[in-house]
Amino acid sequence: MLRIAVIQRFLPSRSRGGVGYFTHGLCNSLTRRGHAVTVFSQDPAPEDALYKVVVLPTTGSVAGYPSAPLTFPFQVARQDFSGFDVLHAQGDDHWIRRSTRPPLVRTMHGSALAEALHNGWRLRSPKRFLMHLYFYLCELIADVRADAVVAVSHDTRRYYPRVHGVVPNGVDTERFSQPQAEKTPYPSILFVGEMDTRKRGRLLLQVFQERVRPRIPNAELYLVCPEKVEGDGVRWLGLVENQRLARLYSAAWVFCLPSSYEGFGRPYIEAMAAGTPIVATPNPGAVEVLENGRYGLIAREQELGQMLYNLLSRADLRQKYGQLGLERAKIYAWEKVAEQYEHVYETVLRKQTGPARSV
């Protein structure tokens, strides 16, 4: 049994962020495997958490943004980690002194540089652009100081000088693969994300209204997003709890997330685990998770409408990619991901006094 400290600023109890769900799933799995896990976070423990949470409260804002991204790393640096065997950071570890911590594993869930380009530069938001550039500098500092650096995808590793291995994100395959709901009576597309960020829900809405709905008049677009959206055939659902989300994945005919950038793309795995075929745009996460289109359709923007029409109008294609997705999702089960991280922990513990080796 290992005593594992995990750093993750936000958790599913308050946030929809993918890294928070990663932390929650991994820590529950590690706990089930016999380890004592403590998460240092700004959020309280989710209801189904099997691990301990130490809450480091943060308040206020800076330049109109919550202050936590700036202040949380300093709160983390003041914590005593001497009672743990391993420290596993998802971020915010760049100011922790080497002399006061156990061996440190850092997971890179994507690149803040890519976020700067896709969520800042392309959206013409100088504040976002500069904020993400600052975070990228922090990531580079953390990359140099960690004992082992793990990326969630092969694309993510290219942004950092020291990455010792790739371990993918995970998903609760049992929850999403259980029969949740009958397919909707009318052809349906599910989107999970935000309308006006790199998730590009607005692009999907336009394609649906201009290229899909005219050809399939009874088609419906289900939007799980914070921004309220209206329109013919559009069903805005806001933010939904996990069990309902699993049912939505199961009920949809097609899942579409046309992001401009994904470091990994957890929703693609969730859809595959539910047996729902996918249409994605060629962002790095989708290309890797879907293996260049083997396990789901990858369409350029101008092809998106036609690809969605093809899947909605052909039951044989939906069955083919739904089955392929179910097989693909198995490699992302939490038990498999946790086992890989156990190997990482064992490696850094064996090499405490030397350089980290490939894991």
Q: DSSP helix count? A: 13
What would you report as the Rg, rounded to the nearest angstrom?
20 Å
User: Structural class per helix/strand content?
Assistant: alpha/beta
Order of helices and strands: EHEEEEHEEHHEHEHEHEEHEHEHEHHH
Q: How much helix is in the residues?
A: 25-40%
Mean pLDDT: 91
Main sheet strand line-up: 3-2-1-6-7-8-9
User: What proportion strand?
Assistant: 15-25%
Inertia-based shape: globular
Q: Are there runs of 5+ residues with pLDDT below 50, and where? A: 355-359
- Characterize the biggest β-sheet: 7 strands, parallel
| N-to-C span | 20 Å
Number of strands: 15
Polypeptide structure, described:
The chain is α/β, with parallel strands linked by helices. 40% of the residues lie in helices and 16% in strands. It contains 13 helices and 15 strands. It has helices spanning 18-32, 68-77, 112-121, 126-145, 154-157, 173-177, 201-212, 242-251, 266-273, 284-289, 304-313, 315-329, 334-350; strands spanning 3-7, 36-41, 52-55, 61-62, 65-66, 86-89, 104-108, 148-151, 165-166, 188-192, 220-224, 234-236, 254-257, 278-280, 297-298. A seven-stranded parallel beta sheet has the order 3-2-1-6-7-8-9, sandwiched between helices. Strands 12-11-10-13-14-15 form a six-stranded parallel beta sheet, sandwiched between helices. Strands 4-5 form a two-stranded antiparallel ribbon. Helix 1 packs across helix 13, helix 7 (201-212) crosses helix 11 and helix 9 packs across helix 12 (315-329). The chain is globular and about 65 Å long. The relative contact order is 0.12.
